[in-house]
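Hi R.,

As promised on Friday, here is the backbone we talked about, encoded as structure tokens. Could you run it through your design pipeline when you get a chance and send me back a sequence?
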């Protein structure tokens, strides 16, 4: 289910002004701000830190006090938080094979993600061998990209949602 994300008079860092913002369902929005402020807002959105004041709404549901798993909001740190010893392919697959899942479903999901994020040429490379933009795209499946591949809806760390088309 997609819903509008709403920030209401949100203060993530003491001494800064409030942020009021609506992000309509199905759209992308960038918050251009100093790193400390942007990171603080992202952490509050994801439920990793409480706001100083204000509210976070998903649709009409106030998620401000909910823990991260109940918010269904992904967060990918700017650095990507990739495992440096794993190839791009293994970073994408990480977690999928750790669960009691059918390998075919994990393989289908990985193939879909690789295709949609245009990462096929970098699958054998390590994170330090790819660009910052590529690292960000590799990190999306672990925090910001919903899961599900080949028409299936597996449960797991992505909440069982389909990837965007």
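Update: got your reply. Pasting your designed sequence below so it's all in one thread:
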């Amino acid at each position: 289910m997609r819903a509008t994300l709403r920030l209401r008079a949100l203060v993530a860092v003491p001494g800064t002004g409030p942020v009021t913002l609506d992000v309509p369902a199905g759209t992308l929005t960038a918050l251009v701000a100093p790193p400390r402020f942007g990171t603080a807002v992202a952490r509050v959105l994801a439920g990793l830190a409480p706001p100083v004041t204000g509210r976070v709404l998903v649709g009409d549901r106030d998620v401000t006090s909910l823990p991260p798993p109940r918010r269904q909001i992904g967060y990918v740190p700017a650095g990507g938080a990739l495992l440096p010893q794993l190839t791009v392919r293994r970073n994408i697959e990480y977690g999928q094979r750790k669960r009691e899942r059918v390998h075919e479903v994990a393989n289908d999901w990985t193939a879909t993600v690789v295709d949609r994020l245009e990462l096929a040429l970098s699958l054998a490379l390590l994170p330090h061998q790819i660009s910052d933009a590529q690292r960000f795209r590799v990190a999306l499946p672990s925090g910001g990209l919903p899961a599900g591949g080949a028409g299936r809806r597996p449960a797991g760390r992505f909440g069982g949602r389909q990837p965007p088309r």
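One thing I noticed while checking it: Residues 44 and 50 are 6 Å apart (CA to CA).

Thanks again,
M.
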